Amino acid sequence: MVVTTFVIISSGAVVWANGLRFNSSTGSFEQTVLIAIDGSPQFADVLLNGNPVATRIPYRIRNLLPGNYVVEISKTGFQSWKQSFWLSRGQVGLINDLTLIATKPLMSLAPSVLKIAQLERLDFGLRLEGGELTDNGKLITRFSVVPIQAHRFNNYYLYQADNELRLFLTEGNQDYLIYGAQTTEKLPLALYPSTWQVALTDGLITKFINLTIPSPASE
């Protein structure tokens, strides 16, 4: 699985067009909406507005009335993923290529020296001033604790606040703790987005963190 993509599509742009459903609050038939969760097949709990609807993905939630919906996807050993959105008549909410982040990611000793220079390429257009993070001029978030550093990482933003290394996802304002360091100094980092890995040096030890694989104790 790769980067999570969330898209709202007009029903005219998809093959599986939606039908009609009677809306008791308006007293009329309305064109329904659809929520589609795509990605590699796996077991995961899917909740719609807090109610369980499925135990595996991919999954389609059909025949819904237009309105506001909250989709939450959870799996043992992983952080929950949540997205809130509004769908108008005939629209499709597409959640594509979902990648879940491990609650306690697998760590191992890194065999090689960190290539710090690659961060400059990953972070082009990214700006951190005080607690405000912008990406190519677009405001991403305002942190309550001013980060020491922040970097672009797939569809997330990896940042360090005090001794904590965290991942921030703009969809749903989700914020995950990845690693607690021994120091509050800026950690040397190397990022490998294609494999969802982070390498860091904490004290005299360099570690690899695989964000999508839980450590054996957390499974």
Mean pLDDT across every amino acid position: 85
Q: Enumerate how many helices there are, as a single number.
A: 1
Per the principal axes of the C-alpha atoms, what is the gross shape?
A: elongated
Number of discrete domains: 2
Share of residues in strands: over 45%
Number of strands: 19
Order of helices and strands: EEEEEEEEEHEEEEEEEEEE
Structural class: mainly beta
For the report, how would you describe the main beta sheet? Answer: 6 strands, mixed
Query: Uncertain regions: pLDDT < 50 for 5+ in a row?
Result: 11-18
Distance between the termini: 19 Å
Report helical residue fraction: under 10%
Radius of gyration: 20 Å
Quaternary structure of the protein: single chain
Short key terms for the protein model shown above:
219 residues; mainly beta; Immunoglobulin-like; six-stranded mixed β-sheet; four-stranded antiparallel β-sheet; 1 helix; 19 strands; 2% helix
How would you describe the overall organization of this protein?
The protein has 219 residues and is an all-beta fold. The protein has two domains: 5-96, Immunoglobulin-like (Sandwich); 105-218, no CATH class. It contains one helix and 19 strands. The strands form five sheets. Strands 1, 4, 5, 6, 7 and 8 form a six-stranded mixed β-sheet that branches. It has a four-stranded antiparallel β-sheet with strand order 9-19-18-17, with no helix packed on it. Strands 13-14-15-16 form a four-stranded antiparallel β-sheet, with no helix packed on it. A hairpin with a 2-residue loop joins strand 10 (126-129) and strand 11 (132-135). The longest helix is centred in the middle third of the chain and has 5 residues, at 118-122.
